[in-house]
Amino acid sequence: MRHHVHVRKLSRTTAHRLAMYRNLVTSLFEHEQVETTDAKAKEVRRLADRMITLGKRGDLHARRRAMRVIRSRDVAAKVFGELAERFRSRAGGYTRVLKTRHRVGDAAPMSLVALVGAGEGGEAAPARVAPRKRGAAKAAAPEAAAKPAKAAKKAGGRKTAAKKTEGGKAGAAKAARGKAAGASKSGPKAKARPTRPKAK
Asked: How is residue 82 annotated by DSSP?
C-alpha cells in the first residue's frame, strides 16, 4: 500500500528523475510552455510553482536554492526578473496543466504545462485540443461522399474541354496543311508533279 507517498517514481532512478525534472522546469521557464506526459506534467507543475515563489522572494538564499534546480543562468534571471514581476500580485497557481492528446506509439496521455500569463506577452496562448466525438465522423461522412462526386464532375468537364481543344488543334492543323498545299500549287515557283503513264 502506498500510504503517505506523494511522489511519482516514473520507473526511473532518483538521479535520473531529478535531472529530468530540472530539464523540464528549465525548458518551461524558457519557452513558457512544454508538452510532456500527464504524470510528469503534474510533478513539474509543483516544482515550477516553487521556483516562481523563490523568484518573488528575490534574496540571495532564494537565488542559490533556485540555481540548484534551474540549469541556465539566463533562465534564472528571467524567473527572478520578468516572471517575478508578472506574478507579484498572484498568491499561487502560476502554471496550468491542459490535457492534449494520446501519444502515437504507446498511447500515453499527454499534457501541456504552461505559465498562466503566457498569452499576454504577444505569444499565442496554448489552446486545449477538443476531444473527437463519435457523431462527428458520421456527420463528416456525407460531406466526404459528396467530394468524390464533385471531383468526378470536374474531371469530366476537364476531359470534354481536352477533347474540344484536341479537335480544334486537329482542325487547325488540317487548315494549315490545306493552305500550304494551295500555296505550293498556285505559287510561281511550284514544281509540276510527274504524271504517271496511263495503263493501256
From this structure: I
176, pLDDT greater than 50: yes
Rounded to whole angstroms, how far apart are CA atoms 121 and 110? 25
Looking at domain 14-131, does it have CATH number 3.30.300.160?
no
In which element (H, E) is residue 101 found? strand 95-102
CA distance 112 to 129: 10
pLDDT of residue 198: 73
DSSP helix, strand, coil percent of the chain (3-state; round to 5) = 55, 10, 35
CA gyration radius, the chain: 38
What does the alpha-carbon distance between residue 30 and residue 24 come to, in Å, rounded to a whole number? 10
In tens, the pLDDT along 63-114 reads 999 999 999 999 999 999 999 999 999 999 999 999 999 999 999 999 999 9
End-to-end Cα, the chain, rounded Å = 122
- The answer to whether 30 and 72 have CB atoms below 8 angstroms apart is yes
Amino acid 45 reads R
SS3 182: helix
pLDDT > 90: what percent of the chain?
Answer: 56
The pLDDT tens digits of the residues spanning 8-17 come to: 999 999 999 9
Mention every residue, 6+ apart, whose C-beta is less than 8 A from residue 42.
8, 97, 111
